[in-house]
Each structure stands twice: as structure tokens, then as C-alpha cells.
Specification:
Elements lengths: L24 H11 L1 H14 L1 H7 L4 E10 L14 E14 L3 H67 L5 H36 L19 H11 L1 H21 L5 E12 L15 E12 L7 H67 L5 H35 L5 H4 L9 H8 L49 H4 L1
Antiparallel strand pairs: 1-2, 2-3, 3-4
């Protein structure tokens, strides 16, 4: 079963039904895939890498050129036009066909082809990174909208509590200290709400940056399938499929061909040469003589041209050593990348598993804190609990609710990052709709065999959309608060405590 099930629509734990018109995670991923400028730039980089193949092949193809010149003798002391004609027109044409170049062309082509493969792997990695960013931004908005909603509800509850405390103070059931405690806690809650609203605005702006459009009413994401059972299983898959690691391996492979190409500079070269020459004295040759000699002529040559380097000042050996050092660098970078992939995979797995545990414990804490708050309020109504006990119970409930929605966000993002590290979170894995997927092979096949010196592409028109015209975001919520987090809780005693006595 492929990860395309990821976007099939299975809901995560503790979700709330939303209208069909809501934005989905698939919508956000498709928008980013089609309009994200960073991803579009990496595709252009792959196309640029594709051109290294025909550039390398050009060094082994025929080379043809024509040269010409026209000369006018402005000052001629000789009186003999046979020795020095007054004017002359010359044209030379030559075709050179490389026959042997010490293996430089062959190895340059292989190196270029290997680096093209590396660039494709890097594009896969950029796709994964972009999608991880989209998922993170998507879940951040969901989390922060929930936190804003919770804080708004908390402020409402504390406002009711404060008013109840003032009423009970008027009848002598509470002291001024009780009222001050309620007032202080309400002021703190309002400050927390302001902070939560600012964070929500920041998350919305981050969403616009990666997706390109403001978030609408975001639907809960589908569950993540095919997550591994153990970190070692995840690492095994990542070492085989992680695109960044595969790109590093391809780049290190290419350096072997660079070494062989550098060694070729010490070897002989051989080319076949065909040339032609044409001259015309334009009637100035042998002027004044009779009979007048011919004014034009042509010649053609066919032959071989070879070069045997004997000494080049130590340059070729320096180039070989440099290529060897570059290979050493690439090999070490591959190992370094492998370390990073292993650490990234294990870390994502650990965060995902721990977040699942936090979700379970937070759900229990939310239910327990709701019961605790109800009990504290009931006990307060008969004089066994103070206003501070109620305020503390309300804060404990809020904290557990915030912990729950934060853990849900962390678990989903870490799970998706784990799939990305395993090389299973790219466009083809996700089964994205919205048009044909970008295929880097299409451009490579188009350009790899081109011979023409005049075949260029049309002027590029950017596909990355600007966010200049998007409106500044506010802290408004487009999602209803999860009923599990917003279950009714008695917010104030039904009657003053002195009436229950």
C-alpha cells in the first residue's frame, strides 16, 4: 500500500466535522506543488544540469568555422603588383572532427549524466522539504486556531467568574481578596489570548509563504499510513530511498569520471581536419602587365592533426590531484549526509511516538480536569473550596487542552517528516491531483541529443505566485472548536453559597 492513502480522507483522532467546502491538506499540497517558487527554482536548476550533457558531448563533435579578411594596401612602395597587389580578399573554411582526446570527452559525458541523476534526486528532496513545510504550516494554523478558541473560552469563563465573585462579595459571601484574585486571573488570561492571537496571525502568514494563498477553513488532515514499527525499520528504508542521500551518492560517483577526465589531459589528441581556401585580388594583381595573371584561386586540404603533450608545467597533475581531493570531499559529504539522514529519521520517529503518548495522556488529563473543575465548583458552592481553587482548576484544564492540541500537531508533523526522511512523501507518493506531475526526464530527453547552435528556449515566465496582494491576516477562526475540547462545564454556581446553607 502506497502513501497515496495519506490523502484519502481518513480523519485523525479527536476531530470535528467540517463542511465539504473547507480547504483540505491535499488542496494545500497541490497549490504548493504548482506555484511554490522554491520548488520551481529547483526544477529550473535540474534543467540547467541537463544542459551539461550536450555541453560535454559538444567537445567530441565536429567543429566547423569560416574566417575571412579583406586588405587594402594603403601605402605600397613596390612598383611590382605581382609582388604586392593593391587589395586582397581571402576566405578559409575548416572542419575538425575529434577522433581521440585521451578519454576526456567520454568521462565528461558520464560525469555530466551522473550529476543530472543527482540533480533529480535533489529535486525529490526539495519536493519533500516543501511538503513538510506545507504540512507544518497547515497544522500550525489548526493548532493555533484551537488555542485561540480555548483562550477565548477561558476569558469568557473568567469574566463570568469575576462577575459572580463581585455579586457574592456584595452579599458578603466572598472577600475583596477573592474578587482581586478573579480579576488578576482574568487579566492574565486576556494577555494569553493576545499572545495566542499573535501566534495565529504568524502561522497564517507562514502558511501563505509556503502555499501561496491565505488559509480558509482547514479540514482535519487524514491519518498517516505505513509508518514504521521501529526506528531501525525507518532507518533501513531511509538509507535506501532518502533523496538527499541518493543525491550525495550520485555526486560522489560523478567525481570518479572527473579524475579520469583530468588524466586525459596528459594523453595525445587526434583530429581529422578538412579545410578550404579561396582568394581574390580583385583585379589588382599584375596590374599593368600583359597578359594579366589570374586574380582568383582556391585550395582544399584533408589530413590528420595530432598533438602529443610532452610537458605542460605540472598543470595536468595538479588537475588530477584536485579532482582526487574533490572526490575525497564528496565521499566525506556522503557520509555526513548519511549521518544526518539517520539522525533525522530517528528523531522524527521519537517525536512521533512521544507525541502519541502525550496525546493519550492529555486526553485523559482533559477529561479528568473537566471533572475536577466541576467538582471544585460544586464544592465551592457549599463553602468547601475557595475562588482560587476554581481559578487553578480552570487553568489546569486550559493547560491540558493546549497540550493536547499541540501534541496532535507535533505527532502529525513528525509522522509526515518521518515519511519524508524515508523518501515516501513526494508528489508521486501522495497521488496529488490538479494536473500532470512534473517529470524532469521530459526536458532531459528533449535536450540531451541536440546539435544546433541556434536552438534555445523561449523566455521563461515565472510560475511561482507572488503573495504581494494577499491581505494581512487577522486572528479570526475559521474552524469550530473541537467539541471534545469545548464540552460544557458549569461556569458558575447556580446560587450564592449563603443561599445553600
Amino acid at each position: 500500500m502506497r502513501v497515496s492513502v495519506l490523502l484519502a480522507g481518513v480523519a485523525m483522532v479527536a476531530v470535528v466535522a467540517v463542511p465539504a467546502a473547507a480547504d483540505t491538506l491535499r488542496d494545500a499540497l497541490v497549490k504548493a506543488y504548482n506555484t511554490n517558487p522554491g520548488l520551481a527554482a529547483e526544477r529550473a536548476n535540474v534543467r540547467a544540469s541537463d544542459e551539461n550533457v550536450p555541453i560535454a558531448k559538444a567537445q567530441g563533435r565536429p567543429n566547423a568555422g569560416v574566417t575571412g579578411n579583406y586588405t587594402e594596401n594603403a601605402l605600397n612602395s613596390s612598383q611590382n603588383s605581382l609582388l604586392s597587389p593593391d587589395r586582397q580578399l581571402q576566405a578559409n573554411a575548416q572542419v575538425s572532427v575529434p577522433v581521440y582526446s585521451g578519454g576526456r570527452v567520454r568521462n565528461s559525458i558520464k560525469g555530466a549524466e551522473t550529476r543530472v541523476e543527482a540533480s533529480r534526486m535533489q529535486l525529490r528532496g526539495t519536493e519533500s522539504d516543501t511538503f513538510v513545510g506545507v504540512v507544518g504550516a497547515y497544522m500550525d494554523v489548526i493548532r493555533d486556531e484551537a488555542i485561540v478558541g480555548l483562550n477565548k473560552e477561558n476569558v469568557k469563563v473568567l469574566e463570568v467568574n469575576l462577575q459572580a465573585a463581585k455579586d457574592r462579595f456584595q452579599v458578603g459571601d466572598l472577600t475583596r481578596t477573592d474578587v482581586a484574585q478573579s480579576d488578576a486571573r482574568l487579566s492574565v488570561a486576556r494577555g494569553q489570548l493576545e499572545q495566542a492571537q499573535a501566534q495565529l496571525i504568524s502561522s497564517k502568514e507562514s502558511y501563505i509563504r509556503v502555499v501561496g494563498t491565505p488559509p480558509g477553513q482547514l479540514e482535519d488532515p487524514p491519518a498517516l499510513p505505513n509508518l514504521p514499527n521501529a526506528p531501525d525499520d525507518a532507518v533501513d528504508v531511509a538509507l535506501k530511498n532518502n533523496p538527499v542521500l541518493l543525491a550525495a551518492q550520485r555526486n560522489s560517483d560523478a567525481t570518479r569520471f572527473d579524475i579520469n577526465a583530468a588524466k586525459g589531459a596528459r594523453l595525445p589528441t587526434l583530429s581529422g581536419v578538412v579545410g578550404g581556401n579561396y582568394f581574390n585580388y580583385l583585379g589588382s594583381y599584375g596590374a599593368g602587365t600583359s597578359p594579366k595573371p589570374g586574380q582568383t584561386g582556391s585550395a582544399g586540404t584533408v589530413g590528420l592533426q595530432f598533438s602529443v603533450p610532452l610537458y605542460q608545467g605540472g598543470g595536468p597533475s595538479a588537475q588530477v590531484r584536485q579532482a582526487q581531493a574533490r572526490r575525497a570531499q564528496a565521499l566525506e559529504q556522503t557520509t555526513d549526509t548519511e549521518r544526518g539522514v539517520i539522525a533525522q529519521t530517528r528523531s522524527a520517529y521519537a517525536i512521533w511516538k512521544s507525541s502519541l503518548e502525550v496525546i493519550a495522556s492529555s486526553q485523559r488529563a482533559v477529561e479528568a480536569n473537566k471533572l475536577s473543575l466541576e467538582g471544585v465548583r460544586a464544592e465551592n458552592s457549599v463553602g468547601n473550596r475557595t475562588i482560587l481553587d476554581i481559578l487553578n482548576a480552570e487553568q489546569e484544564l486550559l493547560n491540558s487542552q493546549v497540550t493536547l492540541v499541540t501534541a496532535q500537531r507535533d505527532a502529525y508533523v513528525a509522522g509526515f517528516a518521518l515519511l519524508a526522511a524515508m523518501g515516501q512523501a513526494e508528489a508521486r507518493d501522495l497521488g496529488l491531483e490538479g494536473g500532470a506531475l512534473y517529470d524532469p526526464l521530459t526536458n532531459y530527453k528533449r535536450v540531451k541529443g541536440k546539435w544546433s547552435d541556434w536552438d534555445i528556449d523561449p523566455t521563461y515566465k515565472p510560475i511561482g505566485t507572488s503573495t504581494r496582494d494577499t491581505p494581512s491576516q487577522d486572528s479570526s477562526q475559521k474552524r469550530p472548536l473541537d467539541p471534545q475540547l469545548n464540552a460544557p462545564v458549569d461556569t458558575a454556581p447556580d446560587r450564592p453559597a449563603n443561599e445553600s446553607k
